[in-house]
């Protein structure tokens, strides 16, 4: 599913973010990525999402050598991914339904498919009764569920969650990870960056620790 072969990243200012990373994440795995601030976690995600290119090494995603694809191919690569951010990134003027539908509409989905798929996904994340609410009318946990629904609606093969529990309370954090676990059981690969070690311990998943740009633990 995801493979890094001797991957290093040095930014133009000389900062070495990752140093000779080798790892393999299988299709359908749930993996936590942990490490201190500045350890290289964000760069690791940016390389997978093709926001950055490695200085050396090769990255594969779903059998595609993503370090060699053209700019035209990047949007198609990203359709394989659902991305969940710490700060939700919802569109304030749109209601819940349209925030989720937006992800389908930008890929050219028909309104018939939108009207069928969006309610199903909102039901999956427990928001079936919130379709006409605006983000400002929702709790932080509910807003993150909308963000997760938006990430799921195009049926991605991988969910990349970057500190998805960073702006919500501990009880809701647990619920979000439980929801990700349920999604993982359906076959979706989950990659979640977090600094919440107590949360990680509760779920017993694979944990990759990055420190100073190298993998210091993989268990």
Structure description:
This protein has 219 residues and is of the alpha/beta class. 33% of the residues lie in helices and 26% in strands. The protein has a domain at 2-80 and 156-218: P-loop containing nucleotide triphosphate hydrolases (Rossmann fold, 3-Layer(aba) Sandwich), CATH 3.40.50. It has helices at residues 41-48, 74-78, 96-105, 111-124, 140-152, 170-185, 197-203; strands at residues 2-10, 16-25, 30-34, 56-61, 64-65, 81-84, 158-162, 189-193, 206-211, 214-218. The mean pLDDT is 95.
What descriptors fit this protein?
219 residues; alpha/beta; Rossmann fold; six-stranded mixed sheet; four-stranded antiparallel sheet; 7 helices; 10 strands; 33% helix
SSE blueprint:
Blueprint: E1 2-10, E2 16-25, E3 30-34, H1 41-48, E4 56-61, E5 64-65, H2 74-78, E6 81-84, H3 96-105, H4 111-124, H5 140-152, E7 158-162, H6 170-185, E8 189-193, H7 197-203, E9 206-211, E10 214-218
Parallel strand pairs: 3-8, 3-9, 6-7, 7-8
Antiparallel strand pairs: 1-2, 1-4, 4-5, 9-10
Helix pairs in contact: 3-4, 3-5, 4-5
- Counting helices, strands and paired strands, the structural category is alpha/beta
Name the quaternary structure. Answer: single chain
Q: N-to-C SSE series?
A: EEEHEEHEHHHEHEHEE
Q: What would the CATH topology of one domain be?
A: Rossmann fold
Low-confidence stretches: none
- What spatial form do the alpha-carbon principal axes imply? globular
Query: Span between N and C termini?
Result: 18 Å
Q: How many β-strands, per DSSP? A: 10
* Percent of sequence in beta strands: 25-35%
């Amino acid at each position: 599913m995801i493979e890094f072969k001797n991957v290093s990243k040095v930014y133009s200012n000389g900062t070495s973010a990752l140093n000779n990373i080798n790892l393999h994440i299988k299709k359908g795995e749930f993996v936590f990525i942990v490490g201190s601030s500045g350890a290289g976690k964000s760069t690791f995600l940016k390389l997978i999402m093709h926001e950055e290119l490695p200085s050396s090494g090769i990255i594969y995603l779903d059998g595609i050598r993503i370090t060699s694809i053209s700019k035209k191919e990047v949007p198609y690569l990203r359709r394989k991914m659902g991305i969940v951010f710490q700060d939700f990134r919802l569109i304030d003027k749109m209601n819940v339904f349209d925030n989720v539908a937006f992800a389908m509409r930008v890929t050219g989905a028909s309104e018939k498919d939108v009207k069928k798929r969006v309610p199903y996904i909102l039901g999956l994340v427990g928001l079936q009764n919130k379709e006409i609410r605006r983000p400002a009318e929702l709790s932080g946990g509910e807003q993150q569920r909308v963000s997760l629904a938006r990430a799921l609606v195009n049926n991605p093969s991988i969910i990349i969650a970057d500190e998805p529990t960073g702006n919500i309370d501990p009880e809701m954090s647990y619920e979000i990870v439980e929801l990700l676990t349920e999604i993982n059981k359906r076959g979706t690969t989950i990659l979640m960056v977090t600094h919440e070690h107590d949360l990680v311990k509760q779920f017993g998943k694979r944990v990759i620790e990055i420190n100073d740009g190298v993998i210091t633990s993989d268990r």
